[in-house]
Amino acid sequence: MKILYGLPSEGMGHATRSKVIIEYLLQEHDVQVVTSDRAYSFLVQHFPNRVHQIDGFHLAYKNAVVSVSNTILMTLKNAPKNLLRNFNQYQDVIKNFNADIVISDFESFTFFYAKLHRKPLISIDNMQIINRAKLNIDIPSAEKANYLLAKNIIKAKVPHANQYLISTFFHPEIRKKNTTYIPPIIRTEIIKAKTSTKQHIVVYQTSSSQKNLIPILQQLPQEQFFVYGFNKDEQYGNVTLKSFSEAGFIKDFASAKAVFANGGFSFLSEAVYLQKPILSVPIKNQFEQFVNASYVEKLQYGRHSSDFTADNMKAFLYDLEIYKSNLKNYRQLGNEALFAQLKNTLSRF
Q1: Is 153 exposed, middle or buried (0-12, 13-18, 19+ CB in 10 A)?
Q2: Share of the chain above pLDDT 70, in %
Q3: 227 close to 253: Cβ distance less than 8 angstroms
Q4: Looking at the 3D structure of the chain, how many domains does it have?
Q5: Residue 144: enclosing H or E segment and its boundaries?
Q6: Confidence of residue 311 (pLDDT cuts 50, 70, 90)
C-alpha cells in the first residue's frame, strides 16, 4: 500500500512520534512524507528520499506567550511564497506517487491531497481530543476565548477524515463518531531506557524566552536541576544548563525524581510512561497545553501551575510521593496497542 504521511513542524513532538509510526509503516508499506523546517531536517536524516519539504504554519511568541496577532501577521506575510512552494511540492508528489491512503498528523497539505483525489484519510494526533471529546475539566473564564479559538482551528484543520485516532493518556467521553483513542506514541529510545530515581529534577523548557527561570530555580538550593531548552552548557550553582543530546537527555530524564515542563503532549506523555511526577506550566494562549496540564493534575500525576514560581515548585515537591504512587497505576506496553489499532484501521480501506 502507498501511504502519504503529513505532519507540521511546530515543536518537535510531531516529528519524534511520527518517526515511530513511519518506521512501523515501512515494514509493510511504501511511505512518502511531507513536512517542514525542523521536522523536515530531523526526518530526512532517517528517511532519505522519502521526505518532501513544504512550508507550514508557525506560532509567534512574545515573553513566553503565544502572540495571536504576531502569528497572524507572520502567516499572512509568508502566505504567497508558501503557497507557491507547496504547489510545486504538490506537483512533484502527485507526479511520482499515487497514494492509496493518506495519514495526517494535524497537517493540511495531506488533507487537501486526500480530498482532491478522493483518498481515504486517517487523522493521527492528540489535538483532536479538544474537538471530538467532552472535556471534563474546569475551563476558567480567562481560557474560554483560547478554548473556542483552539476548537475552531482543530475542527477546520483535518475535517471529515474517515477515522480519527487520538493519542492520549487521559480519556474523556468521546462525542463524535469515527473516533478511537490510542495510547501515546512513545519513542523506542524511551521504551528501552532504564529507569531509576536519582535526586535531580529535569526542567524541559521549550519556550526559551522565559529569562527568569534560573533565579527562580536557585530559590530551591537544596534541589539539583538539569535544564534543557536554552541550548547552553553552563553552571549556576544548583542549576545546570545542558545542550541537547538525545542520549544525555534520555539518561537524565529516565533517572530524574521529577520533571518540570510546559504542556507539550509528547514530553508529558513520555513522563507519564516513565512514571515521573510532573509540574506543568503550559505556555499561555496555547489551549492544548492547558488541557494536557489540567489532566496531569486531574489524574494526580502532578501539578498544573500558571507560572514557574518557587512556591509552586515547593508545593509540588511536598506532594511528590502522592504523584509517584498514582503513576505506578499507569500501564502501557510500549506501542503494541497503537500498532494493532493502526493495522486494523488500515485494513478497512
Answers
A1: middle
A2: 86
A3: no
A4: 2
A5: helix 141-157
A6: very high
- Alpha helices (H) along 194-306: 213-217, 246-255, 265-273, 287-298
Range of the domain at 264: 189-327
- Burial label, 220 (beta-carbon count in 10 A; 0-12, 13-18, 19+): middle
Using DSSP's 3-state secondary structure scheme, residue 168 falls into coil
Give the H/E segment covering residue 278: strand 278-280
Q: What is the largest CA-CA distance in the chain?
A: 61
User: How far apart (Å, rounded) are the C-alpha atoms in residues 280 and 260?
Assistant: 6
Element containing residue 4 per DSSP (H, E):
strand 2-6
* pLDDT(248) > 80: yes
Nearest Cα to 30, choosing from 98, 111, 89?
98
* Span 190-236, pLDDT tens digits: 999 999 999 999 999 876 556 789 999 999 999 999 999 888 999 99
Long-range CB contact pairs, 46-50, < 8 A, 24+: 46/19, 46/22, 47/22, 50/22
* Residue 97 burial (10 A CB sphere; 0-12, 13-18, 19+): middle
- CB-side exposure of 216: number of CA atoms within 13 Å? 15
Q: Are strands 61-62 and 65-66 parallel, antiparallel or unpaired?
A: antiparallel
- Joined grid coordinates for residue 251: 539518561
CATH number of the domain bearing residue 283: 3.40.50.2000
Same domain, 177 and 195: no
At residue 177, φ and ψ (nearest 5 deg) are -70, 170
What is the pTM (predicted TM-score) of this model? 0.88
Which segments within 112-257 are labelled E, that is strand? 121-125, 163-167, 179-182, 200-204, 224-228, 234-236, 239-242
Q: Which residues contact residue 341 at a Cβ distance below 8 angstroms, ignoring those fewer than 6 apart?
A: 165, 180, 182
Three-state SS for 49? Answer: coil
Residues 39 and 163 in one domain: yes
Running DSSP on this structure, what letter comes out for residue 310?
A: H
Question: Which of 254 and 58 is assigned the larger pLDDT?
Answer: 254
pLDDT tens-digit series, residues 48-105: 999 998 875 444 334 444 344 443 344 344 444 554 455 565 566 666 788 999 999 9
